[in-house]
């Protein structure tokens, strides 16, 4: 947004900003569209990003090297317990591209696409989704926030768009988060499952963010 000022070379645009309490920002310009006040000097965008890396980790937090193209959560409690123990996974995105797109934006909605290939029970299970700040798969598991969202699936081979808190998108924008984790800190059977990973083709994880700028 700008106002006009006269210079030696004629009328030119001059920026018009307001003090937010911490910085000079561009004010919203609104008009009445008949039902509500609409912001004239902002546009709304919805962008989807696909995952570009993923990794499963064992209970000791080291990478599970034979997990193939799958992200595991939980412990398999059938017969003898596998050596992997309580498993967890990380999944990441092109965070630099996301930050470029989201720079200066207001986040209005965030959702995560995640397909569960298998659960211990046919009736489904619970995905415990956390947040991390790794820009590439780390050698050992760690994440920044445990259990940002818990999502109940009701069957095997089920895909969902999961509502995520807006602070996830804000954290991506501000370089605090770069992806999500799958980690349920329990050995209960209804938390054991595995999910399509970065190699999942059309089923690979995705983040969709709605924002204005």
Q: How would you describe the overall organization of this protein?
A:
This protein is mainly beta. The protein folds into two domains: 28 residues, no CATH class; 169 residues, Jelly Rolls (Sandwich), CATH 2.60.120. The protein is built from two helices and 17 strands. The strands form five sheets. Strands 7, 9, 11, 14, 16 and 17 form a six-stranded antiparallel sheet that branches. Strands 8-10-15-12-13 form a five-stranded antiparallel sheet, with no helix packed on it. The protein is elongated, with a radius of gyration of 22 Å. The two termini are 12 Å apart.
Strand residues, percent = 35-45%
How many helices? The count is 2
Any low-confidence stretches, pLDDT <50, length ≥5? none
Which structural category do the helix and sheet elements fall into? mainly beta
Considering DSSP H and I runs of 4 or more, what fraction of the residues is helical? Answer: under 10%
What general form does the structure show?
elongated
User: What is the C-level CATH assignment of the largest domain?
Assistant: Mainly Beta
What is the arithmetic mean of pLDDT? 89
In whole angstroms, how far apart are the ends?
Answer: 12 Å
Order of helices and strands: EEEEEEEEEEHEEEEHEEE
Oligomer: single chain
């Amino acid at each position: 947004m700008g106002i006009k000022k006269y210079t030696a070379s004629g009328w030119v645009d001059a920026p018009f900003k307001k003090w937010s309490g911490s910085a000079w920002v561009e004010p919203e310009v609104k008009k009445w569209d008949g039902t509500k006040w609409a912001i004239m000097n902002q546009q709304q965008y919805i962008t989807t990003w696909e995952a570009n890396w993923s990794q499963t980790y064992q209970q000791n937090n080291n990478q599970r090297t034979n997990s193939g193209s799958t992200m595991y959560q939980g412990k398999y409690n059938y017969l003898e317990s596998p050596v992997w123990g309580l498993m967890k996974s990380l999944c990441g995105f092109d965070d630099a591209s996301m930050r470029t797109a989201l720079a200066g934006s207001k986040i209005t909605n965030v959702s995560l696409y995640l397909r569960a290939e298998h659960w211990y029970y046919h009736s489904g299970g619970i995905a415990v989704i956390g947040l991390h700040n790794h820009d590439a798969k780390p050698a050992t598991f760690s994440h920044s926030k445990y259990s940002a969202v818990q999502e109940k699936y009701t069957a095997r081979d089920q895909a969902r768009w999961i509502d995520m808190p807006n602070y996830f998108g804000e954290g991506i924008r501000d370089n605090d988060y770069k992806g999500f984790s799958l980690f349920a800190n329990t050995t209960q059977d209804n938390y054991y499952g595995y999910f399509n990973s970065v190699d999942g083709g059309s089923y690979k994880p995705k983040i969709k963010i709605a924002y204005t700028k």
